Amino acid sequence: MDIPSSPPTGNTRSPTDVDLFPYESSQRPVAGLAVDYEDGHRVRRHRHRRGQLLYAISGVMVVDTDAGIWIVPPTRGVWVPAWVPHGIRMSGEPRMRTVFVEPGAAAHLPEQCCVLSISPLLRELMVAAADVPLDWAPDTRDGRLMMLLLDELRQEPVLPLHLPQPSEPRLARICRAIVRHPERQAGAAEWARELGVDPKTVHRLFVRHTGMTFGRWRQQARLLAAMERLARGARVLDVALDLGYDSPSAFAAMFRRAVGEPPSVFAARGEASA
Known about the structure:
By secondary structure, the protein is an alpha+beta fold. It has helices at residues 21-25, 120-129, 141-155, 169-180, 188-195, 199-210, 214-231, 236-242, 248-259, 263-273; strands at residues 30-36, 42-46, 51-56, 60-65, 68-72, 76-80, 86-91, 95-101, 114-117, 158-159, 162-164.
């Protein structure tokens, strides 16, 4: 990876000294890695022979693939199957903990990218896995830890924290504009006028090509933007108003439904983990 360096912390690697080949070629079914990143850093598109679970102790990671954008706040992780090209954008100095999993090593692993809930146990297992040597022996504490990690991974529920990216040209134009300016209040009718189509056509295109309604997709885009801004230390009030919500309470209600906690708790957890 051609990315700027940052000071290592304990057994955490700095971005410039990460050689992923040993993690991909390990004889063991799973390998753990820890890397700390600076706010705003981007990891260019790449892919792995192994599946990968990405998790950040603090900060927010945004993983983009051809299928969509995946939001990775603390308490969540993104599963990226083997050979899926993906890039990563960092917000709020993420402390990434990740594991690489050999294809077929665990039953019921997702076949597509998805956001997974990270239980307290799985979190601690991923943190500990970064300190386990790549040649861990199966019948040892390290080996039992890594196999327990696989058991916990396949039990985690899939969560709907992602933003589908449509390939349909007219829809892609709308989606790019919303991501650039999530605060814009334009509804389906206004977009329909810009595209010269009926508003019903816009609604049909969204459902057909993203699996979401126009309103749901726009809300997800705003959620993504909100998480990134909160991870960088922005105030909840400022984020709510900047994104066009009528009141902080309306924003907080949306955030709680999607993330499972209010934005103030989400922001405070990031500060406490930093």
